[in-house]
Every structure is written in structure tokens, then in C-alpha cells.
Amino acid sequence: MDALCGSGELGSKFWDSNLSVHTDNPDFTPCFQNSVLAWVPCIYLWAALPCYLFYLWHRHQGYIVLSRLSRLKTALGVLLWCVSWTDLFYSFHGLVHGWAPAPIFFVTPLVVGVTMLLATLLIQYERLQGVRSSGVLIIFWFLCVVCGIIPFRSKILSALAQGKISDPFRFTTFYIYFALVLSALILSCFREKPPFFSPKNMDPNPCPEAGAGFLSRLSFWWFTKLAILGYRRPLEEWDLWCLNEEDRSHMVVQRLLEERKKQQEQAARHQAAEASGKRLSSEDEVLLGGRPQAREPPFLRALMATFGSSFLLSVCFKLIQDLLSFINPQLLSVLIRFISNPTAPTWWGFLVAGLMFVCSVMQTVILHQYYHCIFVMGLRFRTGIIGVIYRKALVITNSVKRESTVGEIVNLMSVDAQRFMDVVPFINLLWSAPLQMILAVYFLWQNLGPSVLAGVALMVLLIPLNGAMAVKMRAFQVEQMKFKDSRIKLMSEILGGIKVLKLYAWEPSFLKQVEDIRQDELRLMRQAAYLHATSTFIWICTPFLVTLTTLGMYVSVDKNNVLDAEKAFVSVSLFNILKIPLNMLPQLISNLAQTSVSLKRIQHFLSQDELDSQCVERKTITPGYTVTIHNGTFTWSRNLPPTLHSLDIQVPKGALVAVVGPVGCGKSSLLSALLGEMEKLEGKVYMKGSVAYVPQQAWIQNCTLQENVLFGQALDPKRYRQALEACALLADLEVLPDGSKTEIGEKGINLSGGQRQRVSLARAVYSDADIFLLDDPLSAVDSHVAKHIFDQVIGPEGVLAGKTRVLVTHGISFLPQTDFVIVLADGQVSEIGTYVALLQRNGSFANFLRNYAPDEGKEHREADSRTALEDKEDEEVLLIEDTLSSHTDLTDNEPVTYEVQKHFMRQLSAMSQEGEGQGRPVPRRRLSAAEKVVQATEAKASHVLTQEEKVEMGTVKLSVFWDYARAVGLCATLAIFLLHGGQSAAAIGANVWLSAWTGEAVVNGQQNNTSQRLGVYAALGILQGLLVMLSAITMAVGGVQAARLLHQALLHNKMRSPQSFFDTTPSGRILNRFSKDIYVIDEVLAPTILMLLNSFFNSISTLVVIVASTPLFAVVILPLAVLYLFVQRLYVATSRQLKRLESVSRSPIYSHFLETVTGSSVIRAYGRSRDFEAISDAKVDTNQRSFYPYIASNRWLGVRVEFVGNCVVLFTALFAVIGRSSLSPGLVGLSVSYALQVTLALNWMIRTISDLESNIVAVERVKEYSKTETEAPWVVEGSRPPAGWPLQGEVEFRNYSVRYRPGLELVLKDLSLQVRGGEKVGIVGRTGAGKSSMTLCLFRILEATEGDILIDGLNVADIGLHDLRSQLTIIPQDPILFSGTLRMNLDPFGNYSEEDMWRALELSHLHAFVSSQPAGLDFQCSEGGENLSVGQRQLVCLARALLRKSRVLVLDEATAAVDLETDDLIQATIHTQFETCTVLTIAHRLNTIMDYTRVLVLDKGTIAEFDSPTNLIAARGIFYGMARDAGLA
């Protein structure tokens, strides 16, 4: 190098340590300045160029118009190029004139000139590629400025020293160059306008990150605006930015699906190649092997292939950060040496302090870029997995659906997809942890020699121990998941059937079941918590024990090994670095273990059988027919016997076909087979044209009524009105508060059963399909409405005339109008033909008809013509009355008036505010006048709510903490705090002791009392570990206790909540308390609190140590604390609200998914799968929209807090340098090694405070639902009814009035009547007359407003609810079964013997079915009794009633879902078995009550008529009109 700089006047040496190092006024030689300092920026730019050009080439975003800024930048580049060439020409000029300059004066201007030209071209190329802010160039200009500062200073100094400027020309060009470079740096910090021709960003609120400048991205400054907004007021959904295009569901899921498809094709090809390689040796194998299962390629491979590129980027960041983290310990070593050497120039110290700061800042910046990259990747993982699972759930077969409950599938989406997101940040530790360990050990070896192996050996020994613990933890986790799944499944069933539980007084049995599962869950939790405490002990002790063994080994191996400050504290700081990967490894192992379980579950689900889309031929068909089945045999699942066999059916185009047959003969299955929902074993199915399907149990979405009917089609007002009119829905619209725009709750909660069925039918009518498959749509509606619908919609004169209609029905009155009838029995077609032909054939069908419909035809026709005119006027009234309310769901037995709806909406808005908006408030899109009113009331409500929320965020929070502390136990809470304090004191003690040890005098090259020093150090360390373990165990015991108490209170309260609570609260919201919130209390709170205490005490002890060793530091504590608190306040407010929004927007994903899974057959039938995928994607995107800023908020916080931490490092080092005369190296080592750790502690502290705030909300929410009002006591000890009550079964209502909820109209008004013991009374009335309400009052589901009900003279209000309910029997309208054995469903308390049960089954005509099952009474009913037909479920309810055999029996239209034959059997059973009992029947089919003692006709909650049926018909009143409609009068 010296040769380059030449000799003579301008020549100089390349390096002179006397000039640069050993002096109080350092400087570089001119040669060094002209060569190295000038070349560094150039080398950087040329090195970065190839990668950068490659990146730009692939990322074209449209070009940016040439702006003033761009022109200025280019001009500066050109000027810099000119300045460099001027320098070069000046050197040539010198050469020509005979004074030869040194070679460096030719090389440097040439290199710099070419580089400046390159930079100028790069500015233009970036502009053409649409780059708004260039990181590469900012760094280049920055390096130019930094490298220019040194010559800038030294040229002035030398001019001052010499009194003249030695080379005026180069002096001038240098300062021009410096000014230009500085200007270029400043200009490059501004960003350009958005590119032209870029894909137009239509987002109303695009993410500022996309347009942020380079520096803004580095420091996450682009997030600041949102942080300030979030501090000023709670963020709302519309404040959130739209997602970047590449993070949106449709992009991510598409990429993942394409990748999977590619891999599946590869696997298939590979398999085919293998198969052809080894042909099967014999036929046996073919027979045994069955069809070869295509191996599903691993899902993980598809994930990695899709997201690999961002993963590689994260690897680069992580690598740089890991290497940087080892620079500070080296600098610490230099600093301690500097303090130990009094003669060293002071600027060394300042330089080291500065370097420490710069190094820490670089680490911060790179670390957070890494985290941002990896978390966004995690976000994409979750998006992709949710999308793939959703799409799979739309195509799985029914047998798969039966194997896994809806809850389990939703779990895949909620828990397992989340697991992936959680594990992604740890993935890089797989290579980074070993790298950090190797580097740390290498530097330690340099420091302490072979003694370090003792420490390393200890670490290696502890790894298997940690591994074993992680495996054990994983086993607990898997088992706990099972318990959790079964508990949630049971809870969801309880909530679904809560009304039945109340009516039967079965709550205690189910309460016990839940508590038993919970007991097991808590047992596991306790074991896991102890395990966790032990691992915490190992965690805390490992680094300390390692330090102890290493230092102990070092001083005891050789007497001359002196432990000085440098060795001790550099080792301590290296061990602190080593601690991080070691601490993370167990977490990584357990996370990977959990994720591998999740991966298996997802993989298993994705490899399940899909419905065969080809099983129904859509293209070809015999001309003239729209539906044909040739020799079809179908089953629900391959391992079950076929449900339908050898079917041969042909349906001509435009025909109306009725399908009839007894319960469980396969009528609904036939429609499923036509839809391709069943597995086809043999035969062919052809269907030509689009399909509309109305299932037996209407599937209603949680959206407006209009959206339910349109079902994704465009609105055609005329056709829409026609559909509503035909389905008798217009009258309903007038009653519903917002007409068509009324929001329907989940599962159609605010519609009656009849309304739901009619909406479902309207959807089919509107769809204008070619083929209509109608599964008993008339069973849920009253008889006159059924007649209207048949005439207006289904029948030969209806809207659908001319379309092909397949109608499953139990109503025989409609059969004469059908084109032909298919009679099914035991899964086969027993007869087929026109109604008349079947009657003449005298088969089983004809006999059946003759029994049930004597002379039906003739009478019917006469009645028809006579009443056609009267009908028209009546019908209007009837329909309006029908809609006024319903008899199915409690929510709406009350008239759904405007008031109620307003109340309902207020409830909804209150609920969505509280963070789990499953019942969204009315969407704020289109506002009708009515909606505006609702909006106003809602706005009032929500306004108030929001204010309350604010209060709750501030002060109420403390009471929630107090609640949790009380649940944990106050003594335990106090103990935990004290133990943590003790642990910190012990840790400080140990380190101070170490510092004193290093400062001990050395006599004859040895330190004397090393053994005593070592002993005390060891004792303090072990003490620290023990205290931590004790506090962890205390916390574990307390946490489990809190979890037990909080769940118990919640469960007991919910079991005792009145029915009205369940009607106004969506079950999803209650379930959320039992799943998500209890999970948080179980598993999240305790570890979070421990982490918070750890980081809090760490931060405090750091400050104590630093202030104690360098008191001057106290001066900067205040400004740093202010900055820290300011950032903390901004962050906590914003991140908490983002977390809230995230959890609010998470529920709709799962509720929509639940809705999809339950309605998948309808969605497929209408061909709407694509649209539903898009809806799901949109919901996921909405959720990720709040999650993305949450990730950014953590990075924003991290950069700022770590900056505070880096300042602590800087000032600690600075003050150590300033006060070096009074400080021992030991103290400096102590305070700086503490300061280096403080960043992490400060960061964790804010993060855990925020986590705790978001998670403690779970306690608040569980508490809120543990304090809701409860119903009357189950047993009143003072007044229990006498044994055997009621003996007579007399029922009397005295001046009885009742309303559903305070503030609503009366449903029954001043009712007085007496029913004598043993009487059979039919209760009839238009829908909404209060029929069901009467029975509910009898069971005290509704409590009286005034008046009494007496049974055998005993006032029912005086006795406990269970004493009352267990002595009455009801066969409810919705037959609800619980998953479990049939035995449990009949007798959950185990009160009856086997014989009793079989007898009850025989009487309820289930004997044949149950005895044919291999398990008999232990036959497993699936969730909701799905594996029994609706009719069979009804019979099970009858069997329950027969078992109880009480004196009072209530039938709530129990026969709506069964065919006439079964209905007759039931009626016969009731007549014979309940002969002596009082029977109250709510009847829709009047023929069932024509032989009753008396009939009660209710009208608008009052008694209209009450007499025997014959008298009432003679009186020609309301009853007569109803009987006439039904063809009975």
C-alpha cells in the first residue's frame, strides 16, 4: 500500500500507529484517508449491486414520473462524477507538468468517479422500476458521509497546524464533494411519488408500509400514526389498514393449493412408476389390498415450498443478528482493560462506549426486521391453513363428518392453525441456537481455556433432561386436549338442549358429567404445572451453575489462574448470550411437539375421503327425464350396511313426485343420494339441470332475511316479492322490525320454526332452479299454512308448476294432486305409481290410506269448493297470525314486535361491544327508516357502552386483578411477590460477590481464599434457584385453584340461569367463555404473571446495580424513564385495542365455518361453494387486518424500547469512562454486563404487561357470566311436596298472567281454568295464541306475573323447581338427544332397571330397532342424535315419558315429524299407557284430539272456547273453522 501512496512531498505511509492510536489527538495518515476511506463506500455498492439488480428485475411496480426530487438526485450524482473526474484530470495535468503525483491520486478518483456514475444510473433504474425509497443508496451515501467526516476534520487541523493549505485545488474539490454527498444523503431520505401504471390501489385505507421510506421501514416509523390515534381514542375497525395484496387470503390460499396440487401430481406419478416397477405377484394381493390408497404428500412440504422465499430472507437477518450479538462482550473486554490501564488515552473509552451503542442499535434494527418478516410469514401460514381446511370441509364425505364432530373440525381451524403461527418465530432456532452455542463456547475458550468444557458438559447433560420434560409436557398436552375437547363438546350439547334439561330436571346429572371431566383436566394441569415449575428451576439455575462450574474449574485447576474482572464479566456476558438459546430450546422442542400433533391432525383431515363429484352424472340423461336412478345402492359410510338398495326411479321432466313411507325408511337419504351426498356402491344416478334443495331442518344463515332468500343471487325485486308471497312471508315482513333487512340470529334464532322453513323454501323458489328436492318442508308449519304453501308453491297450480319437484311428505291430503307417488320401505321402493293406481292396487299403501283418510277425496273436494271464497278472506288473517310468533323457540313465542327487536338489537350491540361479536349489530350499510331508529337506539346504547368500556380499562381493571388474586389466594399471591424479590436480591448478591472477588489482591500471582469465595457464590446461586422454584410451585397451585373456582362458579351459574338468558344470548358466546376464556385462565395467565414478575425484578435490579456502581447514572434515569413510559402508554392502549378487535373479528370466522359445516349439503346443492370460500376468505382477511398492525405494534415498541436500553448501555459505559479514576474494573464489569441485559428485560416487561392486560379480560368475562341472575332454587327444603304427589293430576290456573321478560306484552292474560284428574285436554289456537307458553308456565320455565297454578291443590310457585319438574312429564316438540348411550339418554340418573327400559322401548315401538343394534341399550347416539331419524328421536322422547309415568303428561305437538302410521301408534300408546293420567296436548293435527275429553281454544293469550270437541263443532266457532280447514268438519 505504501507504494500506492508514493513518496516525496505528498507521499505518506499507509499506517502510523503513533499518529492513529497512541496519542491524545488521533488521526489517520493522508494515504489511509485517500485509499481505504474513499474506497469503502464504493466496495459496498459494487458488492450489493448484483443481488439488488436481481431483486429489482423481479419486482417491477410501474415507473415513477420524473419528479423534481429525482432530477435533483440525478444532478447531484452527475456533479459528483464531474468532481471525481476533475480530480483525475488534475492529476494528469500534474503528470504532464512534470511533478508526478502518487498512483493513489489516479486510482481513487477513477474508482469514485465510476461508482458515482453507477449510483446515478441506479437512481434512474430504480425510478423506472417504481422504487420510491432506496435502502441500498441511502446506506451508500451514509457511508460516503461517515468516511468523509475524518478527512473533513484532519484537513482543517493540518491547515491550522501548518498555517497554510498545502494543496488548495484538492482541498476545494474535497469540500465540494463532501457538501454534495451530504446533500445526496439528505435527498435520498425523501421518498418519491407512487409509481405510474402500478396496479391501481383501490383500497380506501392502504397500509402505509407499502409506501414507507427505507428509514421509516427500519424504525417502523410508519406505524406511529396509528399508535397515536390508538392512544387518543380506542381504535375502530375502519381505522385499520387494508392488507397488502400478497398477504390476502385469496392470494395465499391460491398459492398453497397450487403447490399442494403440484405435489399430489408428483406423488401420483411417483407411485404409478413404483407400481409399474413391481407388478403384483398374485391375484390374492389384489383381493386383499382392495383399492390402493394414494399416499398424500406431506402438507409441511407444500407449506415450505409456498413460503420458502420469505423464510430464506429471515434466515439472512437472523444470521447477521447472531453474529452482531457477540461483538459487545468483546467490546466489554476492551473497556475493562481500558479501565484497568490508567495511562490509556481517554478517547479510547469514549470510542468503545460509542461502538457498543452503534453495535446495539444495529442489532435492534436487524432483529426487528427479522421478527417482522417471520411473524408476517406466520400470518400467511395461518391464512393458508384456514383456507385449505375450509375448502376441504366443503367436500368431505358424510362418514368423515360423523367421525369428527363439528367442534373438532373447528378446533383444527382455531387451535391447530394458531399453533403453526406460534411456532414459526421459533423455527430458525433450529440452526441459530447451535450456532450461538458454538460461537459462545469458542469465545469462552479464548477467555478461560479448557475449563469451559466443564460448563459445556453440564449444559449438554441438561439437554436430555429438558427433552424428557418436553416429551412429558407434550403427553399431558395431548391428554388435556382430549379432555378439553370432550368438555367443550358436552357443554355445547348442554347449551343446545338446555330447555330439555330444564323440562326434565336433568341438570344435576349433566353438571356432574362436566365436573368429572373438569376434575381430570385439573389433575393433569396440576401435574403439568409442577413439571413446569421444575423446568423453571432448571432454567434459572442452568446459566448460573454453568458459570459456577466453569469459574470453579478455572480457579481450581491451576493455583496461578487469577480471576480478574475481564475474565469474570466477559464470561458472564457470554454465558448470558448462551442462556437465550438454551432457554429457548425446551420451548422450541415443546412447541415443535405440539405443532407436530397439529400437523398430524391437519394432515389426517386433509387426506380424508372427499365426495365424488362424478357420482351424479350431470351431462347425459334419457330424453324427457330430469332425474333417473338405475339400480342404485347407497350408504352413508363404507363400513355401514347400505341405507338404500336396488333403487330404480325415473322422474319425467316437470313432474311432481311424492316420496312417502314410515319413519327411518330412507326418504331423506334418497334426496341425499340424488345430491351426491351419499357414497354410491353401485348403479348410476343422472340429474340434468340446476338444483334447489330444502332440507328437513331448515338451514338459516346469520345474515339478513333478504340475503337468506337471495342466497348470493342478484336482487330482482319482482321475483323476490313473488317468492315471498308464495311462501306466505309477506305478513312476516310487516311484523319483523326491519322487514327484509332484519338481521337473523345464528341458526335462525329470532324466527319461529315455521318461518325458518318458509325462508328455506323461499330460497329455493327464488333460485329458479330446474329440479326441486323438498324434504318435508310442510311438517314445521300449521295445517292451513301448509295448505297455502302447497297450493301456491309446490302443487300443480303453484309457482313451481312445470319444474321437476321431488317432495318427501307425511301429509296425505296432498297426495292426490301429485303426478305419482314413490313408497319406500326399509331402503327399497315398495310401490310406485299414481295415487289412483296405488289405491286400486290394494297394496300396503292403499290399506294405510284407507285407515287414515276415509272418503278423503270426495269430502275434500266438496269442502274445497264451498270454502274457497271464505278461505280467501280468512287466509290473509291466518297468515298474519301464523307469523306473529312461533311455537318452536322460546325467543319468539312472544310476538316479535318492534320493541322486542329493539331490545334484541341492543343486546346484540352490547354483546358485540364486549369483545365477542357473534351476533353482529345491524350492519351499517343500507339504512331504512326503521333501521335508522334501531341505529339511534343502538348508537345510544353503544355510546354509553364505549364509555363504560373506557372506565373498565382504567380503574375496573384493578378489581379484576383483585378477583384473580382472591381466586389464587391472597397468602399465595403475597408469597409469590416476596419469593421473587428474594430471588433478585440473591442474584445481585451473587454478582456483587463475584465483582468483589475479581478485585481481590493478587499475592505471588495467586488469589488466596478462592474456596470461600466459590462457596458463598455457589450458596447464593442455589438459593436463587430454590426461591424461583418455590414461587413457581406456589403460582402453579394458586393458578390451578383459581382455574377450578372460576370454572365452577361459571358452570354452576349457567346451569341455574333462566331459559330467557339462553334465548337472548347466542350459544357461541357462552361457549366462548367455556373454551377460550377458561383456556386462558387455565394455561396462559399463570406463566404470563411469572414472566412479568421476572422481567420487572430484573429491570429493577439492573437499575439498582448501575446506580450503586456509577451514581452519576441517576441523572439520566429520569429522561429515559419518561421516554420509556411514554412509549409504553402509546403501545399498551393501541395494542390492547388491536388485540380486542382481533378477538372480535375471530369469532365470525369460526361461526361462519360452523354454519358452513352444518349447511354444507345446502351450499353444495345450490353450487355456492366458491362464494362461501370467498366469504370465509373475507372474514379471515378482516381478522388478519387487526393482527397485522398488532405485529407491527410489537416491532414499533421493540425498536423504541431497545433504543432506551441501548441508551442505558451507552450512558453506563460513558459514565464508567468519565469516572474511571474512582471505579474498580470489577464494578465496571458488573454494571455494564447488567446493562447489556436490560434491553431484553425492559422489552419483555411491556410485552407481558400488555399480554396480561389482554388476557386478564378472560377473568372479567368469566366473572360477568358467573354473576348473571339465576332461576328459583331447585329444591326448597322447608316446603317439599309430599311423596307420591301429584296423586290425582288436577291442574288449575287461577287468574294467571305471564310475560316473557320484563317490559314485554303479556302472553297469557288472566287465565282461569280447571282440568280434572285424568282428563285429556287438547290445546289449539292460531300460532302465537300462547299454546306453548301455557305448558312452559306449568314447568315454571316462565314465572307468573300474577295468579297461581295449582296441581292437586299445591301451589307450584312454593316448591323447588326440580321437585316440580321431576313430577311432570313432557314430550317436547324438538326431540333432543345427547351424545352418549341410549341408556343415558333415557335415564341419566340410573333410576330405572333394564326391564323397565326395554318395556318402555317396546311400548314406544323402538324395541325392534334397538335390539337389532349390536350394542343394545349401549347404542351410541351421536351429537344431537344425528344417527337416528327425526321420527326415531321423537320415539325416544316418548320412551322417556313412559319411563317416568307421572300423573301429568304434556305433549307439545310431538307428532309433527312422524308419518301417520307411527303417529297412530304413538297416540294408541298414549291412550293405553296414560289412561289414568291428565294429558295436555298442543295439537296442530286436529285428528289427534278429536276424541279428547275437552278442547281448549286460545286466542291472543285468553280462553276463547273450552268444551268437548263435538260441542265446539256444533257451536260453529273458531274450532269449527279449524276443523273445517283440516277436513274434519
Annotation keywords:
six-stranded mixed beta sheet; 1529 residues; 50 helices; alpha/beta; elongated
Explain how this protein is built:
By secondary structure, the protein is an alpha/beta fold. It is built from 50 helices and 21 strands. The protein has a 6-stranded mixed beta sheet with strand order 5-6-7-3-8-9, with helices on both faces. The termini are far apart. The model is unreliable at 280-293 and 854-956 (pLDDT under 50).
Compose a concise summary of this entry.
This protein has 1529 residues and is α/β, with parallel strands linked by helices. Helix content is 64%, strand content 8%.
SSE map:
Elements: H1 2-5, H2 17-20, H3 30-58, H4 68-96, H5 104-129, H6 135-162, H7 168-188, H8 208-211, H9 214-219, H10 224-232, H11 249-277, H12 283-289, H13 299-324, H14 327-340, H15 346-393, H16 398-403, H17 406-427, H18 429-448, H19 452-496, H20 498-504, H21 507-557, H22 565-606, E1 625-635, E2 644-652, E3 656-660, H23 667-675, E4 679-687, E5 691-694, H24 705-710, H25 717-726, H26 730-735, H27 753-767, E6 771-775, H28 783-794, E7 804-808, E8 820-825, E9 828-833, H29 835-841, H30 844-852, H31 856-884, H32 898-913, H33 929-968, H34 970-998, H35 1010-1055, H36 1059-1064, H37 1067-1109, H38 1114-1158, H39 1160-1165, H40 1169-1218, H41 1225-1266, E10 1291-1299, E11 1306-1315, E12 1320-1324, H42 1331-1338, E13 1346-1351, E14 1354-1355, H43 1361-1365, E15 1368-1371, E16 1380-1381, H44 1382-1386, H45 1394-1403, H46 1407-1412, E17 1420-1421, H47 1430-1444, E18 1448-1452, H48 1460-1473, E19 1478-1482, E20 1494-1499, E21 1502-1507, H49 1509-1515, H50 1518-1525
Parallel strand pairs: 3-7, 3-8, 5-6, 6-7, 12-19, 12-20, 15-18, 18-19
Antiparallel strand pairs: 1-2, 1-4, 8-9, 10-11, 10-13, 13-14, 16-17, 20-21
